[in-house]
Amino acid sequence: MNEKERLLILWLADQHQRHIPVSLMLIQEKAKRLFQAIKSKKGEGSESEEFVASRGWFMHFKACANLHNVKVQGEAASGDEKAASTFPNKLTELIKEEGCCAEQVFNVDETGLFWKRMPYRTYIAREEKTALGHKAGKERLTLLFGGNAAGDFKLKPLLVYQAENPRALKGIWKGQLPVVWRSNKKAWVTLQIFEEWFSSHFVPAVKDYCVSKGLPFKVLLVLDHAPGHPAHLSDFNHNVKVVYLPPNTTALLQPMDQDVIASFKAYYLWRTFAMAFNATEKNENLTLKDFWNSYNIYNAVQNIAFAWDEEKRTNLNGVWKKLCPQFVYDFHGFEESVEAVTEKVVALGKQLNLDVEPKNVTELLASHGEELSAEDLIQLEKQLIEEEEIETPEIYHQGFGRFFYDRGWVGKISG
User: Fold this and answer.
1) Can you list the domains of the chain with their CATH numbers?
2) Structure pTM?
3) Distances (CA, A) of 45 to 40, 231, 297
4) Disulfide check for 252: which of 76, 84, 147, 347 has CB 3.0–4.6 Å away?
């Protein structure tokens, strides 16, 4: 399998991880763009190389990648309005049948976070863009957030990072962190990670919460069809009934997607700017660039915990308005909107002498869900090869199809 096809598999895995559907036409177009990027990287001598992403090539690619028997399912751009309008009533009936109250109905959802990224127009972001080697702005992790419909119980966030033991956590017991720390070479939530988190963290935490409320340990968990969510999770614990949202309704119905995650990311950026401001104020010899160079994953974990703590109970209850309106109290919007937090970020940016406007912050917040570029994929493959050759070379050289399968990528390609 050549470099273009290896990068294409990385791209497909990333699309699937973010439950974005792909078609034959999209795959062919991405393959052509990757070919051009690789061709440009080679420089002189590659001008005569040509590539036609034909259907015959695609069928061969599927077979070589060991993806011939699978099919991608993800969120449609517009969402399924009809399913979204009927599902809440069905869920209400199920909740009645199960005898659950707002405290016993939960939802969790994943999101990516570029934990060390500045707004594009700042001088630090410009410098990172032109610097050779690893770019700090591309350092991504995955977080899983969740809570109940009453809004009075937030789960400890699950954080999946590329490294199990980064230098910044040396000497720190991970059990004391304000997140559940797990690692994966691509920083994704795999089936194995989700299953372990469910059994070792979700179930014990929710059980203790129910006991503290004098409620029976009997809960309902609402999930979307993300690739890391097992299809038969209800079999893992008879006290937890799992209900899956209809396909293509996540953006329309899922509580954690109704501005909770967007609000968290705004708070995270604000907290990071505040940390930078405080550090440079205390030490007049410390420049913002110095601070940013020293900003590490442990600092990011602290700011993640702060940002998650900022999510208020009224907000976490109100976001169930579309899915379970019967559980929502007097909700008239977030106590502090994403726009309001954005203004706070801009104000701090000005104090740090950064060229930051509200639209720059909005662009940055949106970028956390952006598609990996050809440059990103080339860098990611390089990191994976280096890490796999050191740790598990026998798995890597078995082939990329098996490589992804072994790590919980059970995604499927339509064609």
Assistant:
1) 3-18+23-71+371-406 (no CATH), 81-367 (3.30.420.10)
2) 0.79
3) 10, 49, 42
4) 84
